[in-house]
Structures are given as C-alpha cells and as structure tokens.
C-alpha cells in the first residue's frame, strides 16, 4: 500500500512516516518500480508496536536502539527482551504513581462534595 493509505491505516502522518524511515525506525520499506514506498503488513505491525512503545512513554532513542537490535536478527533477542523488561518496570512504576495521584484527587473531590 502507498504512503497515503498507510498513513490513514496507522494514524501517522506521511511526514512522520518519512521521518521514521529517515532515522532508521522503518528501515526496510520496499519500493515499487516507480520508487514509491510500498508498505506491507509487517510494516503495519512494526509501526503499531512503535506507536505502543511511544504511547507507553518509551523515549525515541530507546525505540531506535530496539529497532537497530531488531534489524540485527534473532541473536539480539536477549538484548531486546532486556529493553522491554526495563520499559515494563518503568511503566509499572509510572502507573503506580498515577494511581496514587488519582486517589489524592478523589480524596480532594470527596472533601469538596462534603463541603458543598
């Protein structure tokens, strides 16, 4: 599929997709005979994973590190797993902190509900 179709499917702008290709996050996008990008199902799955990592707070430099390891193949599986475990730990800590913040807000709202 072309970049416009892929953009609509992934929710990422063509500019973002080109940027991801430029920095190496989308390193293996094929091109047709005219030189236009031809995105695959595998590209779609990879972009969905990149998006998930971004939405869960993984910094772009770590996503790029993961992508470089991914391009090197199965022999980097341990390193990729370690990166994901570290990110998972950070995410769990952030979620716990957010839950604490939410509970504090609920208490303050309850205070105002009783006051009013």
From TrEMBL:
Keyword Transferase annotated: no
What SMART domains would the database entry show? HTH_MERR
Q: Which GO terms describe its molecular function?
A: DNA binding; DNA-binding transcription factor activity
List, alphabetically, the Pfam families matched. Answer: MerR_1 (PF13411)
Tell me which residues make up the HTH merR-type domain: 1-69
Entry-linked InterPro entries: DNA-bd_dom_put_sf, MerR-type_HTH_dom, MerR_fam
| Coiled coil regions in record | 74-108
Alphabetized, the UniProt keywords read: Coiled coil, DNA-binding
PANTHER family xrefs: HTH-TYPE TRANSCRIPTIONAL REGULATOR ADHR, REDOX-CYCLING DRUG-SENSING TRANSCRIPTIONAL ACTIVATOR SOXR
Q: Tell me what this protein is called.
A: MerR family transcriptional regulator
């Amino acid at each position: 599929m072309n970049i416009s179709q892929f953009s609509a499917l992934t929710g990422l702008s063509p500019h973002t997709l080109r940027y991801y290709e430029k920095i190496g996050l989308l390193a293996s996008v094929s091109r047709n005979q005219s030189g236009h990008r031809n995105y695959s199902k595998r590209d779609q799955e990879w972009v969905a994973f990149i998006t998930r990592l971004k939405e869960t707070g993984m910094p772009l430099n770590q996503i790029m590190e993961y992508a470089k390891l991914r391009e090197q193949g199965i022999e980097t599986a341990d390193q990729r797993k370690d990166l994901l475990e570290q990110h998972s730990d950070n995410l769990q800590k952030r979620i716990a902190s957010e839950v604490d913040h939410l509970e504090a807000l609920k208490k303050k709202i309850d205070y105002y509900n009783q006051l009013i």
